[in-house]
Design brief:
The chain folds into 2 domains: 49 residues, no CATH class; 45 residues. By secondary structure, the chain is mainly alpha-helical. 49% of the residues lie in helices and 12% in strands. The two termini are 24 Å apart. A two-stranded antiparallel ribbon has the order 1-2.
């Protein structure tokens, strides 16, 4: 879902002052729209009628795909808080 507002904020690395991204600023209307969209997708989508064992299999598949792609995420978080890379790439295991 795309942001509904027109304002954005520059995300700057405190380490070197370089611009990392230009991110949209959420609006109340945009948040309401996102919540309504998510509720509609949940209520009318397949997830509520999916058997728990099938849900578990889907979540396991998702976790495995995320695990394979962890190297792609290593560079995202340290710009803001500098957590150790091994901790950062393993955060999802605690979910």
């Amino acid at each position: 879902m795309r942001a509904t507002g027109s304002k954005s904020k520059e995300l700057v690395s405190p380490a070197d002052g370089k611009t990392l991204a230009d991110v949209p600023i959420a609006t109340a209307d945009g948040i309401d729209l996102a919540i309504a969209s998510a509720a509609n997708a949940f209520e009318h989508g397949p997830w509520p009628r999916t058997h728990p064992s099938e849900r578990a299999a889907l979540m396991t598949t998702f976790a495995e795909a995320l695990e394979r792609r962890m190297p792609l995420f290593r560079g995202f978080g340290p710009h803001r808080s500098a957590p150790p890379s091994l901790w950062q790439v393993g955060w999802h295991r605690s979910l």
